[in-house]
Amino acid sequence: MLMSVIEGARSAPQYPELAGKRVLITGISSSCGVDIARAFAEHRTRLILQFSETSERTQAIAEIAAPAALDIEVFGPVGGEADDVVQFGRSAAQAFGGLDAVINLIPLSAPPRLDVAATAAETERLVADRLLLACLLTKIAANRMALTLTEGLILNVAALAVPACRAGRAFAVVLKAALAAMTRAQAQEWASRGIRLNAITPQTATSAAEPCLSGEPDIAALALYLASGRGRALSGHVFEAEARG
Fold it and tell me: Which domain holds residue 169?
């Protein structure tokens, strides 16, 4: 079923119910997010784009999405403190009077200060820091959806580039497990309000035989499906995508 969903969604915009929906995409960078932003723009959504960096490439992504989107708001990098994230989350939720879908792009790369000899506690703290934006935004967005009786989607996407160094790979494994656990727990928490949470993470060696997404265009197609009426039955799922070296 997954592959038929991907092939159908990649052929042409086919979810007319997405037109006018308010979609927040966070963590867009020069190497991640362009296909997802373009896919939702082509469905005439109202886009709120948050970039993790400021560059000519990210500016080009906004310029690509703007002509197709029904409306667009752009935010730059968000500070690493909880107050910074909360302030951004509230501003994003108010941009178009609410949110119908949130897609959080989360980098797997290890923080510069991570050492090979880092303790489990230190690694867990760094993982929590990396997931802070997605975790707090989920609470803000889900609360806003519940208040406005919106049956929305929150999708957490771990970037697919796997770190080359040993410390980086270890960090990515812990981050992936934490993201999956967080997504499933939040999906259960918000299920009664009609708010769906799913995640996409890099494929592991133990699941290599399973069908998986092959790149960002496939991720974009799945995100469209999950945000549409056809994806309303799916929540608490962790999908896998081919990891890039």
Answer: 2-9+20-241
